[in-house]
Here is the input.
Amino acid sequence: MSSHPNDTDKKWILESLAEAKLAGIDVPIGAVIVHDGKVIARGHNERETTQDPTAHAEIIAIREAAKTFGTWRLKGCTVYTSLEPCPMCAEALIQARVDRVVFGAYDPASGACGTVFNLFVEGRIYPIPQLTCGVLEDECKQIIVDFFRLKPKAIRQ
Amino acid sequence: MSSHPNDTDKKWILESLAEAKLAGIDVPIGAVIVHDGKVIARGHNERETTQDPTAHAEIIAIREAAKTFGTWRLKGCTVYTSLEPCPMCAEALIQARVDRVVFGAYDPASGACGTVFNLFVEGRIYPIPQLTCGVLEDECKQIIVDFFRLKPKAIRQ
Here is the structure.
């Protein structure tokens, strides 16, 4: 289910972009999780830094939010991420029962919100989060383009 | 790319089943990662126990293997899991560059190796692991059926 951005979506996507900028040697992708108008968890891509293949921004933020709430059910949460989630992250968000997923740039390589795959389909055993796509798309795309332009050796292998 | 089981696949699927039986209050799903003929990481579903929505058997095993090797690239590894991986786990295995994925029971709810979704498609930016499906399918299915029969309250919500 896709929906239009609301008034605060740009604000929180900018916050996810700020988080992305902390990624250092990793591809700059950031995520924040908002509950009751406050950021309750955040994460940026740390795959290279930690050498953990699951250390994407969303996974880090989800695990932090679950720790904060003491439950794996993240109802009432909206996840803002600077890049369209890959299937690993998209499924983690769906299974964690978040209310909404809002992302910035589309990912032609692995996007799982409709670009390459679409996991957000009705009729699954899980309720499907509301989806808002392409908020501040250009800004979110640009930092990734810049990253690969400046650090060609970091290209995915 | 789907392939037939080899001589040792049943042995390692039995090992993943033994791991599944350690899941306690969680749905019994287990995984082991084999490298050079030895188990180098293992995991069982711990979502309820830890209240971490990402704590599926395969994710736990992948993170342990990466820690052991000191790299997120798990080349040369085969992952044996008692249930067809969901999209979160399947994508984690693909992005971690494992050589092979072997699973037991098919998952009609969330299987991402062809049953509900198929992430193992050629033409992506990642090399696609070899896939072997349905090894000791009946045994792997039975422990999950028994779990839900004996613990109806544990049904996914």
About this structure: The interface with chain A takes residues 47-48, 51-55, 59, 62-63, 66-67, 70-74, 86-92, 95-96, 109-110, 112, 116-117, 119, 124-126, 156 of chain B (CB under 8 Å).
